[in-house]
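TASK: fixed-backbone design
INPUT:
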């Protein structure tokens, strides 16, 4: 069975890099979604929440993530977020999401809105470029 490689990127470092990932569950504005290795390539906009993944022959791993972007290309999944925390206590991670990621000041919200517009424009151009190269 094919497996995935997962990389979680923060602005100035690689937060996590896992191989042999068999399943990923993430949250978007439209609900929770699962990713399996056979899934077609995709891009998703993540909302602050608890992210989970399973590494073959290990227990499920949980991360609290700020909003960001998930990109799956082939067996590679890359997630880019501003903040992330790892933990085993789901209640603690859920509280961390609420306290640290959802309480933003007005200036930070304006910057995030501008970044979201830039990301959307980038993704449109990327998709358009990909369609024209086919």
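OUTPUT:
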């Amino acid at each position: 069975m094919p497996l995935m490689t997962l990389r979680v990127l923060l602005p100035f470092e690689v937060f996590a890099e896992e191989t042999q990932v068999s399943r990923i569950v993430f949250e978007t504005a439209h609900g929770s979604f699962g990713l399996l290795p056979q899934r077609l390539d995709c891009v998703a906009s993540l909302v602050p929440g608890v992210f989970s993944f399973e590494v073959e022959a290990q227990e499920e791993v949980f991360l609290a993530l700020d909003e960001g972007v998930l990109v799956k290309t082939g067996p590679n999944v890359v997630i880019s977020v501003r903040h992330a925390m790892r933990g085993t206590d789901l209640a603690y991670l859920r509280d961390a999401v609420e306290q640290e990621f959802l309480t933003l000041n007005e200036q930070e919200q304006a910057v995030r809105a501008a970044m979201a517009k830039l990301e959307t424009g980038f993704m449109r151009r990327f998709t358009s470029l990909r369609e024209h190269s086919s």
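COMMENT: The mean pLDDT is 86.
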